[in-house]
């Protein structure tokens, strides 16, 4: 086991799961042995149909895919997996590779393309790298989600503060009524939120901020009343 | 095909001329440079949509130029060209963010198809 591999595995909450799609039993068993020794949970599928079935039943972090299968073109399986489970990394292994085939595979999102025969070190390094990238992608997606949620919370707080101020600060009320969004420049609000407050968009406020008190909504009602006139 | 602004970086004048002729006929505005250094300066100073980049240049490895372009101008389309094509180079080029890869010698149709398929993210362009 390589040091980098130990590191990659240590970051996974459970053993990464790998599906080996390969009809050559000796290659499939060899990969199963090598990757299992390294701590991965390995399943085998010797046809394209069985590989698709396995993906329907279980989540895999990585697909190691041979392209020449007895039933379906391996590239078609790869395409379907990348379409339906884009988070799954894919390594193609093939004895019939060409640069053009490799480029086509990389264009649909394959992480690596390894011509057969390959060494144990080659496949281990490719698997390590692919799973490390998968972890990074997952971490980035989680971070982005957290940032979006934090931004939503900040915006919600700012909308409430601005609406509270309308009932306490008559000058601010007047400024907002006359100058619209410009009166909200000091607040950390998106243009959409500023426009919603200034125009009295009650639907947006209900959807993005939630229920508010009558006092907080007084400005919105007056704004809508003025609009009606 | 859209009237892309294309830069060809290749030390073979005949390749540059051929690319220029073929792509100009498709409405592209084509310039060329014969070295990696001149190519990098043109990329920095110019406003191109696509770069056709030879891998083996006299001064700088084309793969290094690709890496630099991906860092500095991620939206620029890059098609790598090489006369020494093999799977490992093709895979490396795609891993480093090439949009496509052409093995020399390539046909007029292959060149037009590759340039036509490159989707350019103009936001990353300068």
Can you characterise this structure?
The complex is a heterodimer of chains A (229) and B (126). With 229 residues, chain A is of the alpha/beta class. Chain A folds into 2 domains: 3-118, 3-Layer(aba) Sandwich (Rossmann fold), CATH 3.40.50; 148-228, no CATH class. Helix content of chain A is 62%, strand content 11%. Chain A contains 10 helices and 5 strands. Chain A has a 5-stranded parallel sheet with strand order 2-1-3-4-5, with helices on both faces. In chain A, strand 1 (17-21), helix 2 and strand 2 (41-45) form a beta-alpha-beta unit. Chain A is rod-shaped and about 80 Å long. By secondary structure, chain B is an alpha/beta fold. Chain B has one domain (5-116): Rossmann fold (3-Layer(aba) Sandwich). Helices cover 42% and strands 20% of the residues of chain B. Chain B contains 5 helices and 5 strands. Chain B has helices at residues 13-25, 36-45, 62-72, 87-95, 108-117, and strands spanning 5-9, 29-33, 50-54, 77-82, 100-103. Chain B has a 5-stranded parallel sheet, with helices on both faces. In chain B, strand 3, helix 3 (62-72) and strand 4 (77-82) form a beta-alpha-beta unit. The longest helix of chain B has 13 residues, at 13-25. Chain A binds chain B through residues 97-100, 102-103, 106-107, 112-113, 115, and chain B through 85-87, 89-91, 94-95, 100-101, 103.
Within CATH, the superfamily of the largest domain in chain A carries the name Response regulator
Largest sheet of chain A: 5 strands, parallel
Query: How do the strands of the widest beta sheet of chain B line up side by side?
Result: 2-1-3-4-5
Quaternary state reads heterodimer
How do the helices and strands line up, and which of them pair or pack?
The complex is a heterodimer of chains A (229) and B (126).
Chain A: H1 3-10, E1 17-21, H2 25-37, E2 41-45, H3 48-57, E3 62-66, H4 74-84, E4 89-94, H5 99-107, E5 112-115, H6 120-168, H7 170-179, H8 191-199, H9 202-208, H10 214-228
Parallel strand pairs in A: 1-2, 1-3, 3-4, 4-5
Chain B: E1 5-9, H1 13-25, E2 29-33, H2 36-45, E3 50-54, H3 62-72, E4 77-82, H4 87-95, E5 100-103, H5 108-117
């Amino acid at each position: 086991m390589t040091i980098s591999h130990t590191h990659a595995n240590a970051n996974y909450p459970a053993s990464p799961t790998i599906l080996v799609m390969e009809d050559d039993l000796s290659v499939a068993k060899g990969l199963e042995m090598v990757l299992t020794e390294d701590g991965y949970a390995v399943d085998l599928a010797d046809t394209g149909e069985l590989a698709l079935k396995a993906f329907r039943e279980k989540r895999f972090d990585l697909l190691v895919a041979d392209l020449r299968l007895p039933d379906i073109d391996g590239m078609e399986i790869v395409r379907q997996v990348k379409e339906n489970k884009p988070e799954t990394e894919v390594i193609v292994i093939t004895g019939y590779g060409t640069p053009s085939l490799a480029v086509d595979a990389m264009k649909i999102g394959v992480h690596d393309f390894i011509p057969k025969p390959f060494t144990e070190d080659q496949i281990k390094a490719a698997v390590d790298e692919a799973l490390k990238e998968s972890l990074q992608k997952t971490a980035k997606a989680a971070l982005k989600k957290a940032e979006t949620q934090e931004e939503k919370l900040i915006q919600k707080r700012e909308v409430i503060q601005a609406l509270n101020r309308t009932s306490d600060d008559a000058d601010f009320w007047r400024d907002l009524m006359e100058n619209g969004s410009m009166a909200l420049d000091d607040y950390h609000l998106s243009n959409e939120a500023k426009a919603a407050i200034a125009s009295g968009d009650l639907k947006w406020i209900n959807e993005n901020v939630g229920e508010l008190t009558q006092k907080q909504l007084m400005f919105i009602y007056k704004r809508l009343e003025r609009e009606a006139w | 095909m859209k009237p892309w602004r294309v830069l060809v970086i290749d030390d073979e004048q005949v390749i540059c001329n051929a690319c220029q002729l073929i792509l100009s006929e498709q409405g592209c505005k084509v310039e060329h440079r014969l070295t990696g250094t001149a190519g990098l300066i043109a990329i920095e100073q110019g406003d191109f949509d696509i770069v056709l980049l030879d891998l083996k240049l006299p001064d700088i490895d084309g793969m290094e130029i690709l890496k630099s372009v991906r860092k500095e101008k991620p939206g620029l389309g890059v098609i790598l060209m090489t006369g020494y094509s093999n799977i490992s180079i093709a895979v490396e080029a795609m891993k480093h963010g090439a949009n496509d890869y052409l093995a020399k010698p390539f046909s007029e149709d292959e060149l037009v198809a590759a340039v036509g398929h490159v989707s350019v993210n103009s936001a990353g362009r300068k």
